[in-house]
Amino acid sequence: MPLTFVQHKKISLRKHPEFNEAWLHDRICEDPSILGLGDVRVIDRERVCTGGGRLDLLLFDEDNDRRYEVEVMLGATDPSHIIRTIEYWDIERRRYPGYDHVAVLIAEDVTARFLNVMSLLSGSIPLIAIQLDALHVGENILLNFVQVLDQTDMRVDDTDDDGGGGQTDRAYWDKKAGKPLMAICDQVLAMINEASKQPQEFNYLRGYIGLRSNGVVRNIMTLSPKRTKKFVHIGFHHPEAGSWHDRFEEAGVPSRKGRNGRRFRVSVTPEEFASHQDLIREAIVETVKEFES
């Protein structure tokens, strides 16, 4: 189908009577991928920070154990907003040192002065600047986010803390992940219940799928289907995580181990899950036994 050229007009959200900052926050929370930061999810919004102030958005990239401290500003960047962005980033990285942390500033006008100042801090503060262009196209409004600065040089670490992003239900995950990946999750749960003395059920959160029994949450294992990448992260909590990580790697299954030595995660497509089902089942059984002992 041939494309048709459509005239557009750039508008200012700051001056618009309807499309304010709260409206913009809602759009980002509905689909944080529009920022171009990858497969991220919202951990918190308007997060109260130590010493005062509120962080607009806290995003999490599970694949890379990276958190983004996001400040949104309508209009042009100004010194006070830049300072707040860096301050909130510093508070969060000190509070949760196990993650990579990146400060993100979103503004309708990222000024040359801002870019010059931030270039002086290159290598010291991992920061991404995103310019937002709001475009009026026909009867619609289009939000275009463009990274104009990316200076990230982060360390990789691990921690047990992981915000789930709020409670949800099966319908949410069926829509988000799709039936083939959710079928893997169901098979994993069946394997867990074959080995467990206490029947387990899914605890659906927006960030991942955990476990609970009789209303008590016990995430000895977690599941995180990734539709765009067509695989499922299966997370295990086991004291011999390093040994299990090596076994999966030797079998050709992508695995990542946590630095605390008690967690590891494998990533499998439906085909890989079928091919390595025996090894996965063994790891599940041993994890359940360890938990129940």
Could you explain the architecture of this structure?
- This protein is an alpha+beta fold.
- It has two domains: 144 residues, Trna Endonuclease, Chain: A, domain 1; 123 residues, Aspartate Aminotransferase, domain 1 (Alpha-Beta Complex).
- 32% of the residues lie in helices and 33% in strands.
- The protein is built from eight helices and 14 strands.
- Strands 1, 2, 3, 4, 5, 6 and 7 form a seven-stranded mixed β-sheet that branches.
- A hairpin with a 4-residue loop joins strand 8 and strand 9.
- Helix 4 crosses helix 5.
- The protein is globular, with a radius of gyration of 22 Å.
- The relative contact order is 0.10.
- About 3% of the residues have low confidence.
At a glance:
With 293 residues, the protein is α+β, with helices and mostly antiparallel strands.
